[in-house]
Amino acid sequence: MDEREVVARRYGEHLTDQDLLALTGGRADQVGALRREPTLILDLLDRPAVADGLLLTAGTAGRDEPDRFTFISPFLVFAAAVHRTARGLVGSTYVAERAGPRSRVPVFDAPELAAFASVPAHQLYLAELLASYSRLSGGEVWRRTDRGWRRQRWDELDLPRLAALLGAVPAAQRPAVWRRLGDGAVFLAGVFPDHAERTLGLLAVSRLREATGLRLTRDDVPRMLESVARRAYEQVGPGVPVGAAKAPGSTRRLLTVIADRYLFPFAADWLPGPAH
Could you say which of 81, 108, 132 is where a domain stops? Predict the structure, then answer.
């Protein structure tokens, strides 16, 4: 079984029959075929018209017909966005790179980013990562200190608090904390960089530095978060694709492109408008 088949099976595990029905455009007779041959799922998502249709459905459901398309899972929506973005990068010469709040500059390395985005394991990783934040988790653990037991709260997008769990949970559970820390770092850097810059102040970075043992500086928060992700994924093992673990910058940039195109539409102003 090659990598594409392994990835396709994972897609099949995520998708419900209702998802597959949406993927086939409502043709119920094809759902069974997708279950038997899940690589067909990837073939369909790679078709721009199919991915665009799913994204249009997701984008208009809540606004125009709130009860009609609620059966489409977050994973299917984000998988469509990932595949559409990957396909859209093919043949491009540049990619818009964030230079600041509501500011982008063209970076002429689109072929390299397109190659990264075309790897099936990377596509699965991105879709799973995005879907995993459709609902946020948090909670509390009890930690024994010199002053007795202390309740410690955590939130998976509050990275300093999440990292503090590394010193509070048993060793066997730390890889899971590292994994979520790495995911959260690239997610914030790619999708919500402005929020990350506002919330990761000097004190928060100091706490993150102490919990992870990393030498972190706040000069460039997105790049700092890439360092956190790289270190975190080193502790996880085979759970993260090797290419994504070694190149969190590529993950961050793809997440930014996906966010700019499908989550928070952004129109770059450094290209001339059409002639009238």
Answer: 132
Phi and psi, residue 151, nearest 5° = -80, 130
SS3 at position 66: coil
pTM attached to this predicted model: 0.88
- Collect all residues with Cβ–Cβ distance below 8 Å to 169 and sequence separation of at least 6: 141, 177
pLDDT at 182 over 80: yes
Domain membership flag for residue 162: yes
Q: Quick one: which of 103, 81, 110 has its CA closest to 268?
A: 103
Backbone angles phi, psi at 273, to 5 degrees: -75, 165
Residue 263 lies inside a defined structural domain of this protein:
no
Q: Which amino acid is at 97?
A: E
80/138 Cα distance (integer angstroms): 28
| Number of domains the chain contains | 2
Contact 17, 27 (CB under 8 A): no
The SS3 call for residue 137 is: coil
Alpha carbons 229 and 82: distance in angstroms, whole number: 20
The Cα–Cα gap between 79 and 65 comes to 22
**Domain around 15:** 3-132
Structure tokens at 93: 């010469």
CA-based nearest residue to 248, from 259, 233, 263: 233
- Of 132, 149, 166, the position where a domain reaches its end is 132
Please give the Cα distance from 126 to 138 (Å, whole number).
Answer: 22
> What are the beta bridge partners of residue 143?
150
pLDDT, one tens digit per residue, over 81-135 is 999 999 999 999 999 998 888 789 999 999 999 999 999 999 999 999 999 999 8
